[in-house]
Amino acid sequence: MVIEVDNLGGKIVDKLPREHLLAIQSVCQFKVENSEFKAMQYSRKSRGRFQFDGYKKLFNIQTRRFPIGLLHRVVNICENQLGYKCDIKDNRIHLPNVYDYKYDASMPRDYQQQAIITSVASGNGILKIATGGGKTVVAGCTIGALKKKSIFIVHTRDLLYQAIGSFSRIFPEEKIGQIGDGVIDYQNITVATMQTLAILGDVEVGKSSDEDDTQDEAKIEATKLKREEFARYCATVQCVMMDEVQIVSSQTAQNVRFLFKSADYAFGYSASPWRDDGSDLAIEGAFGCRIVDITASELIRRGYLVRPTIEIHNTTYRFAGGKNYAEIYKNYIVENLQRNMQVANDAVKEYNAGMNTLILVTQIKHGELLAQIIQSMGIDVSFISGKSGMKKRSQAIQDMRDGKISLLIASTIADVGLDIPRLQCIVEAGAGKSSVTALQRLGRIMRTFEGKTSCKFISYRDTATYIDQHILHKINIWRTEEEFEIYEDQRRIY
To answer: What is the CATH number that goes with domain 110-294?
Structure first.
C-alpha cells in the first residue's frame, strides 16, 4: 500500500475496502466537547438531512487524506491490524540549508541537549517540558542545530518579547525578527504572535486569552500590510514552532501551522500538552506525537526546580444561591466578601512572612475587589490584567523581578509565560478545573533563585454547586507529580 506524504499531510493512494477505511478513521478522530448539543444544532441547521455522531474526523474517507502529524497512527493500524505493508512516497519539499547560525551551544542543560537531539532526529513532534525547564532554550538551540529559517509562534505580546529576548541571548549575532505588536520584520529567525499571523494569513483564529487585546491590534496592523508579502515569506519558512500549544484551540493551531506549506519541520512546546475539550488529536495532527516528556518531578530531583507545597484551605462561608454556573461563580467567588477576606488574609500573611506573593484571579472585577480589601489593610498592591496596558503590567512584573514589590494581583495573563524566579507563593483566588492551568500556575513559583529553598501554592475547597468539584479535579492532576506535597487544612493528603 502506497502512502504519499507532503509537508502538511498524507494520502493513501490505493483504494481500500470501506471497513478498512473506517478502521483507519477510528484512530484519527476525537469526540467533540458538548457533542450532544452540537449534534442537535447540526441536525436543526440541516433540517435533519445530516447526522453528526459527535466525532471530529481527521481522516477523510473520500479523499483518503490526513494531517501529516497522524502518519504514525495510520501506518501503525495499517501494518499491525489491517495487514498492509506501507510504502511511504515522500513528496515533501526540503529547502536547502543556507544559514549557519552562530549560537551559544553551551546553554543547554543535559536534558535539554537530549531534547534537541530528539527533535532534530524526529523532524516533528510535541515536546512536554515542565514550566521552568527551558522550552525556549530547547527551541532556540534546535533552530541552531537545524540551520533552518524558522518561526516561533506565541499567543500574547508578553510572550513575544520574552521569546525575542531569549533568542537574542542564544543568537548574539543574529537579528531576531518580529511579527506582532505593530511590528512586521521578517528575519531568518522570527518570533510572531498567533493573532497577527492569522490576520495576515486570513485564517480563523480565536482569542487565546479572555483579556489580552493583541487581536485588536493585529486587525489594525493588517490594514497596513500586503498579504502578498506575507505569503512570500511563508513560502520560505522551513521550521515552524508553536509555544504553549495547549492554550490555542485545535483548529487555530492547524490553521496557523498550515500557513507554512514549505516547512518540513514542525514542533509544539508545552508544560501540559493536553486540552480539557479532548481535542489533543488535532494538535497532534498539526505537529506530530509527543517526542519528549520532561516532568516537574524529574527536574525537582535534579535540583533544577524547587519542590512546592500545595495547601488546600477550606472556605467556611456557605452559599447556595445562583441558577447557573455564571451566577454561582459571581455570588460565591467574585463578590463573596467573607471568602475574599479569607483570600486577602492568607495572601497578606504570606507577604508579612517575607514571601514574594502573587494572587491569581480569573475575572477583572474579582481582582479589583481583592485589591480594595488589601489596600484597606494599609498595604499598597497593584492589580494587572490584559486591560492594564502593556507598560503598566510590564513595569509591575519587572518590579517584582527586581524585588521592589513583594505582593501583586494578576488575571489570567499570568497563567503562562510569567517568569519571576524570586516568586515564592501563589494564592489562587479564583476557581476552575482546567488541567492545563492546574500545572501552569503552579510552575510560576518553582523556578530556582538564590536563597530560595521552598515555595507554596494556596488554593481553596469550596462548597458551592459545580465549584466544589474543581479542586478535586486539580488535586488529581497534581497527584501525577510524585514530588508535590499536598495538604488540606494542614493535614497531608499526598
So the answer is: 3.40.50.300
